[in-house]
Amino acid sequence: MSLGQKLAPHLPFLRRYARALTGSQSHGDSYVKAALEAIIEAPEQFPLDVDPRLGLYRTFQAIWSSANPESDDGSAHPAGREGIASARLGRITPLSRQALLLTAMEGFTAEDAAYLIDSTPAEIDELVADALAEIARQTRSRVLIIEDEPIIAMDLETIVRDLGHDVTGIAVTRDEAVAQALADRPGLVLADIQLADDSSGIDAVKDILARFNVPVIFITAFPERLLTGERPEPTFLITKPFQRATVKAAIAQALFFDAETVPA
Q: What's the CATH class of domain 3-136?
């Protein structure tokens, strides 16, 4: 099997990580493209002594670090999502965010994450704890949950409240979701894909976004269906069955890039 064939199954998830790290599909994809170009130009430098997925993320991390996208020299921040991220990055270290995403969202062990960012497992644990605590201090919001499975909805509600956020409601259909969003505007939406009446959580989100902008985290048992690269993809995507840490990381990241939760 060629190196390309070994790496192909992992590319959608590397793109997800890059997108969450940058807050932008286009920016995230540009770093993934640069990493792939580096592998093509010098395949002999690709680490063959580790799992291909680790080697792929390691190459990406090297590109990301060399670009130094999260440096902050005190100059004025750009507008838009990059500006929002820059404002927050002055209050949280880049390594903490990377450690959080690599472990909680991408599922790497502390040992693997340590390899990826040249750290130690103990330091990774500290970085993750620091990231969660700092982002929690920076972000407080109100969350609408769109989920038709009662047990999953209750679990999500508990996670949201444990993070210090309020829940505006739990909707089980497209119509309920839109009605609740309009009645009590949330600052974040957690949306399942398949809903109780066979309606679509994607359609519910489209309806909501047609009225106002709000960060959205999609939840699905089939993430590959939304990670095709054929159309705009959700910035934040959680795979079912999910780990609580994954949901916490996604919420933290979604609010990290949200203008309405930027502290004064």
A: mainly alpha
Note the pLDDT tens digit of each residue in 10-47.
999 999 899 888 878 888 999 999 999 999 999 999 99
Residue by residue, DSSP assigns the chain as --HHHHHGGGHHHHHHHHHHHHT-HHHHHHHHHHHHHHHHH-GGGS--SS-HHHHHHHHHHHHHHHH-TT---SPPPPSHHHHHHHHHHTSS-HHHHHHHIIIIIT---HHHHHHHTT--HHHHHHHHHHHHHHHHHH---EEEEE-S-HHHHHHHHHHHHHTT-EEEEEE-SHHHHHHHHHHS--SEEEEESB-TTS-BHHHHHHHHHHH----EEEEES-GGGG-SSSS---SEEEESS--HHHHHHHHHHHHHT-GGG---
Q: Which of these CATH numbers, 1.10.357.20, 3.40.50.620, 3.40.50.2300, 3.90.150.10, describes 140-261?
A: 3.40.50.2300
The pTM of the full predicted model, rounded to 2 decimals, is: 0.57
